[in-house]
Specification:
By secondary structure, the protein is α/β, with parallel strands linked by helices. Helix content is 32%, strand content 23%.
Length: 550
């Protein structure tokens, strides 16, 4: 995957996508597979904003039972299965425990009915999964003893048992997002990160080109295309800015989602639903407050999602210490006696998402419905669409529907093939076979931890990566091959220290890494990219800022 700005500037495209989060990349992949000539630019790094801030769960939509919304639930189950088939190296099944308590809607009878309905509706949940280790088991009801065994730290007062259902969890959501970019690029799409859209050039009701700025050099150029798509996430409301000067008021109203990563939890082997004081005002069947989730992930615990309304410019949103402390208090309120402390939190992350209302009187107003917007009517532009995205699980179907609309506008034929084709790294039989192949090829002194890292990061692409730099040298963390840094820079469009540390190699995603490791990677990148000492210091400061909260 090369950053070919010359191609973007000199060629004409069928489709130009503005925004390289998961939805823009999923659309690019779908469109290029259908034979369209596709360009995509992203002002930051691929997936670095909202896409990177998810709780890493691929939801099957069990909660939609409360809304009696079976169509959304069926779609979620189908899309979860599609993503598991497309990138099995990046996904694990995980059980989620919902404690039962006295009461009709929160008791065993209601949860047993929910588990049965979920199993019936999701009867094809494992269809096409090659590796039986990836299969999602049926849900079941647990006794109080089983609940205590699974969740030894769970306060058992009023707990009569539990319900256990299964969803999928991304091992590495950032590489999942990157896999869409790699796949689109391999099929011919022209992608570039760190390129900001500045202005649409319009003539007679049609956009002729998008003027962009390369944020690395400051150079500006135009991308010409027949159709344009704005997949800009929380910046979507600022679309009019691309037709005029900077808007006087750039305030957006979004839902700010917050996740925490900690060393300890109450349920080390399963996800756990934790009741909150919020209610879901749209639910037809109320069973108490909304739930947070804690889940084991890569040897740590994730907690989320806390949702709060944010008003302001998208670039100004930051996680504050007060947000972290507030979320800790909410978790402790749902788990009396657990006493999560601030020093237990290794890092906090999140992002801005679509919300349904400017003010929420009660409950969460996170939008549950995505939208593909044709701006032929409201903006009188025949060749511009935009997307209002929702959860990560729906990225593929949103990309498909956006491409359906683009194909119609272009008068082109052809259906989507994305659900039936693997993402980069996803074409192998079983995880056991994959890891055995890697173990046999790499240095004997490497531990299985390094083998696991290669398998889950690159999947069936590991020979391509290994061929680029077969060396036994490991970084100072003791598990990461040093040549992966070089590979990320030369083949995965990593331009900055944070690109490698956070989104190409999982070096900084488990909390603040050792300073020596960061310096080591920075030195490698400085040599590869020609950074002087001032630039290297700037990159280090920008990276450490990721762990700073106001």
């Amino acid at each position: 995957m090369k950053r070919d700005l010359k191609r973007l500037a000199e060629e004409s495209f069928d489709l130009c996508i503005l925004g390289g989060g998961i939805n823009g990349l999923a659309t690019a992949r779908d469109a290029v597979q259908r034979g369209l000539k596709v360009a995509l630019v992203e002002q930051g790094d691929f997936g670095a904003a909202t896409s990177s801030g998810s709780l890493k769960i691929l939801h099957g939509g069990l909660r939609y039972l409360q809304h009696l919304d079976f169509s959304r639930m069926t779609e979620s189950i189908r899309e979860r299965n599609a993503l598991m088939r497309m990138a099995p190296h990046l996904v694990d099944p995980l059980g989620f425990l919902v404690p039962t308590t006295p009461g009709f809607m929160s008791g065993k009878l209601a949860l047993r009915a929910a588990m049965t309905a979920n199993d019936v509706i999701s009867w094809k949940r494992n269809c096409g999964l090659r590796d039986r280790a990836q299969h999602l088991p049926a849900g079941r009801i647990l006794s109080p003893t089983e609940v205590k065994s699974r969740a030894p730290g769970l306060p058992m007062q009023d707990v009569t048992g539990g319900a256990l259902f299964y969803d999928a969890v991304m091992r590495n959501s950032d590489r999942f997002t990157l896999s869409f970019a790699l796949s689109a690029s391999r099929e011919g799409a022209a992608l570039a990160n760190r390129v900001r859209g500045k202005q649409f050039l319009v003539r007679e009701g049609k956009i002729e080109a998008l003027r962009v700025e390369d944020l690395e050099s400051g150079d500006e150029f135009e991308i010409r295309a027949c159709q344009f798509a704005a997949m800009t996430g929380p910046w979507r409301d600022l679309l009019p800015e691309l037709f005029t000067d900077r808007l006087a008021d750039r305030t957006v109203v979004k839902n700010a989602g917050l996740q925490l990563l900690t060393r300890r939890g109450v349920c080390p082997a399963s996800g756990l639903a934790i009741p909150s004081e919020e209610v879901d005002p749209d639910a037809k069947l109320q069973r108490g407050g909304r739930h947070y989730f804690s889940l084991p992930w890569q040897g740590y615990m994730l907690w989320g999602t806390q949702d709060k309304i944010y008003k302001g410019e998208p670039e100004d949103w930051k996680i504050r210490e007060a947000d972290i402390e507030e979320f800790i208090a909410e978790i402790n309120g749902g788990l009396p006696g657990f006493k999560l402390k601030r020093e237990d939190v290794l890092m906090a992350f999140g992002g801005l998402r679509l919300c349904d209302a400017e003010e929420r009187k009660e409950g969460s107003k996170v939008s549950r419905r995505y939208a593909i917007n044709d701006h032929a009517e409201d903006m009188k532009l025949d060749n511009l669409i935009s997307m209002d995205g929702i959860k990560y699980t729906a990225c593929r179907i949103m990309g498909e529907k956006a491409t359906d609309l683009i194909m119609s506008k272009l008068g082109r034929q052809g259906g989507s093939r994305t659900a039936a084709t693997h993402l980069a790294g996803g074409d192998y039989e079983t995880r056991a076979i994959l890891e055995a192949e890697i173990r046999a090829a790499v240095p004997a002194e490497w531990t299985m931890e390094t083998v696991h890292l290669l398998a889950e990061s690159y999947g069936s692409d590991w020979p391509r990566v290994w061929k680029e730099g077969p060396s036994a040298a490991l970084l100072s963390d003791g598990r990461t091959p040093a040549f992966l840094v070089t590979y990320a820079v030369e083949n995965e469009m990593a331009l900055h220290l944070e690109d490698v540390m956070l989104r190409r190699c999982p070096l900084g995603t488990f909390g603040r890494p050792e300073a020596g490791l960061v310096q080591e990677v920075a030195a490698m990148m400085a040599e590869l990219l020609g950074w002087d000492e001032a630039k290297r210091a700037q990159e280090l400061q920008a990276f450490w800022n990721y762990y700073s909260y106001e």
